[in-house]
Amino acid sequence: MELDTSSVIDNEESFYANAVQYWSEIPATIDGMLGGFGCISQTDIRDSKLLLKQLFNSKEPPQKAYALDCGAGIGRITKHLLTEFFDKVDLVEQNPQFLNQAKLYIGPKLQTKIENYYSVGLQSFVPEENKYDVIWSQWVLGHLTDSDLIEFLKSCQKGLKPNGVIIIKENISSTNDIDKDEQDSSVTRPLSLYRKIFTTAGLDCRRQVKQRNFPKGLYTVYMFVLKPLPNNTYTNMQ
Ligand SMILES: C[S@@+](CC[C@H](N)C(=O)[O-])C[C@H]1O[C@@H](n2cnc3c(N)ncnc32)[C@H](O)[C@@H]1O
């Protein structure tokens, strides 16, 4: 039997509700966003910048007009990464307090680049079509079930402009198992499951890059650069 999140999530409604509850009690700080590991933020951003620079130097790069930050929290990635590369950024985040804090954290100067703050869960969010050059999702997709993640990725594809890409940066489980975190109500998927989900959603994984220099004991983190498959067909997940 193939492994998927239905094997570890018995009740989807409480899976989502428990995550809302968990994040409602977390301080709107960098440490809060990173589970007490605020110290890794710079290292994280450094490798993400390198990835974007390489992407812009590649054949058929995306434009630098518009990015979407998914599960944006207080806007850590928007502030330190996306506003450096893109003219405009939208944030989508389910916790409205974090978005309020993002307005302060991003600051008045960079604020001019922020077009929209969407306060909604990714499982219910549909990006406007043909809008974004890069859709960045980091440390949030473990809060979606497989089927919601696949639907989300399909709708993100429609939200991309020509040459646009989806970039995912996520923890990866060290075995072939899905790790369930009961505390924050999330799952950590193995690499094989992410790759299968990408294919099912009609996405081609153009790059898979490991984050460097994180402290020992943390999950391995990968960045994936995804583009719609040429024929743009979706497959059914078996
Ligand atoms: C680990 S934090 C990461 C924040 C940000 N991506 C970063 O790297 O700084 C996870 C964020 O995802 C948000 N989140 C959790 N479940 C979500 C969902 N279903 N839809 C949108 N955001 C969600 C949380 O409120 C929190 O802000």
From TrEMBL:
S-adenosyl-L-methionine binds at residues 71, 76, 122-123, 138. Gene3D superfamilies: Vaccinia Virus protein VP39. Keywords: Methyltransferase, S-adenosyl-L-methionine, Transferase. Pfam families: Methyltransf_PK (PF05891). Coiled coil: none annotated. It is an enzyme of class 2 (transferase). It comes from the Eukaryota. InterPro entries: MeTrfase_NTM1 (IPR008576), SAM-dependent_MTases_sf (IPR029063). One of its GO terms (cellular component) is cytoplasm. It catalyses: N-terminal L-prolyl-L-prolyl-L-lysyl-[protein] + 2 S-adenosyl-L-methionine = N-terminal N,N-dimethyl-L-prolyl-L-prolyl-L-lysyl-[protein] + 2 S-adenosyl-L-homocysteine + 2 H(+); N-terminal L-seryl-L-prolyl-L-lysyl-[protein] + 3 S-adenosyl-L-methionine = N-terminal N,N,N-trimethyl-L-seryl-L-prolyl-L-lysyl-[protein] + 3 S-adenosyl-L-homocysteine + 3 H(+); N-terminal L-alanyl-L-prolyl-L-lysyl-[protein] + 3 S-adenosyl-L-methionine = N-terminal N,N,N-trimethyl-L-alanyl-L-prolyl-L-lysyl-[protein] + 3 S-adenosyl-L-homocysteine + 3 H(+). The keyword DNA repair does not apply. GO terms for molecular function: N-terminal protein N-methyltransferase activity. GO terms for biological process: methylation. Its EC number is 2.1.1.244. Belongs to the methyltransferase superfamily. NTM1 family. PANTHER family: AD-003 - RELATED, ALPHA N-TERMINAL PROTEIN METHYLTRANSFERASE 1. This is Alpha N-terminal protein methyltransferase 1. It comes from Zophobas morio.
